[in-house]
Design the sequence.
């Protein structure tokens, strides 16, 4: 049995890599971080031209009918270039949830509209993971009220997709009773927002939890893939810098201490690739839903730790230059840090993984989510 990417999957990732090398240079990422949305539109247009928004959508609804693994391969490249794109939210999480719920005619219709390009969805699931006292969305018929935090992919969105107790709720962006609030995070390569809803009309797709779980599981895998790509780029930059920077008339890469730092980054990061691949594969091919849920949690938490290590060590290899805007390492550094906290901090997600494996922890215990 061959454990690796197929030729088509490798070709897909290489195509995305070449496209982003052209359309997502560091100068454009810097422009986006300063408030210029032109790079966002350029990258989105390029991904659309490649047909990537159709990746996860079933063929019957006008898509390519591929899996979460293919979406993760794309997201890895987006992380590698710190690209400002709503791809993970709109064409990963949203489609994953609607695909599970597609027995409902509404869900099938929305998948077709996403495939046609007329609908782009921002996604909010945090209230189904860990709801703060001042947040939460309540449905009364088709009206929603409350507050939802940390919606992903709102930059180009025409609609919001929220995970609520009843299932999935879709709200038009310009609907009455909707207020979008921009949130400030350390990551300037992507924007997140909160919603305040006051009797906003929503299209509600009833679900017993499977669709919401698919969104969260897929989202965690895609965050892991994004961190993998970002960390891989930071490692490459550190190695390249170590070969060029000279001290005492020798490249610093010839010094044993620097060699060990680069080697340890590579040794920690390389096994993560197979973990992310399998976690993504499990979302579509595991016989038990618990395996998909468990692997998504293991991938997210492990990449959070390894990504943090690589980000810190790669910056150290660059010395003082690593802290300057000239090299731009901080875009990847902060993106990895942001991924670490999205959809649940590592301690919280590890507690979920322990509960899934019956390790004596249950949701709601006094030690739930604590390190």
Sequence:
């Amino acid at each position: 049995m061959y454990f690796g990417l197929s030729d088509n999957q490798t070709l897909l990732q290489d195509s995305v890599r070449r496209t982003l090398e052209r359309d997502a240079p560091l100068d454009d990422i810097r422009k986006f971080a300063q408030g210029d949305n032109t790079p966002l539109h350029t990258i989105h247009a390029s991904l659309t031209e490649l047909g990537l928004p159709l990746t996860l959508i079933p063929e019957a609804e006008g898509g390519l009918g591929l899996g979460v693994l293919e979406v993760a391969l794309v997201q890895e490249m987006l992380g590698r270039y710190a690209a400002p794109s709503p791809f993970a939210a709109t064409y990963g999480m949203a489609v994953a949830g609607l695909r599970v719920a597609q027995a409902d005619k509404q869900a099938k219709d929305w998948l077709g509209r996403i495939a046609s390009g007329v609908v782009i969805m921002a996604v909010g699931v945090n209230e189904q993971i860990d709801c703060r006292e001042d947040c939460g969305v309540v449905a009364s018929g088709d009206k929603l009220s409350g507050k939802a935090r940390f919606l992903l992919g709102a930059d180009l969105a025409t609609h919001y997709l929220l995970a609520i107790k009843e299932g999935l709720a879709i709200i038009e962006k310009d609907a009455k009773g909707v207020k979008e609030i921009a949130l400030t995070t350390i990551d300037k390569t992507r924007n997140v927002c909160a919603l305040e809803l006051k009797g906003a009309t929503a299209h509600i797709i009833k679900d017993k939890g499977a669709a919401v779980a698919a969104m969260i599981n897929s989202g965690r895998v895609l965050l892991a893939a994004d961190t993998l790509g970002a960390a891989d780029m930071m490692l490459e930059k550190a190695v390249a810098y170590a070969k060029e920077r000279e001290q005492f008339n020798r490249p610093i890469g010839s010094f044993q201490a620097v060699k060990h730092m680069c080697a340890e980054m590579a040794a920690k990061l390389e096994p993560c690739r197979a973990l992310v691949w399998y976690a993504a594969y499990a979302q579509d091919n595991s016989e038990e839903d618990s395996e998909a849920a468990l692997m998504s949690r293991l991938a997210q938490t492990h990449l959070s730790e390894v990504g943090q290590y690589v980000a810190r060590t790669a910056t150290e290899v660059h010395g003082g230059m690593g802290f300057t805007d000239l090299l731009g390492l901080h875009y990847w550094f902060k993106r990895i840090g942001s991924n670490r906290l999205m959809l649940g901090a590592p301690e919280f997600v590890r507690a979920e993984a322990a509960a899934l494996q019956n390790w004596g922890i249950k949701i709601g215990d006094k030690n739930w989510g604590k390190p």
Summary: Strands lie at 121-124, 136-140, 143-152, 159-164, 167-172, 178-183, 192-201, 203-206, 246-247, 250-251.
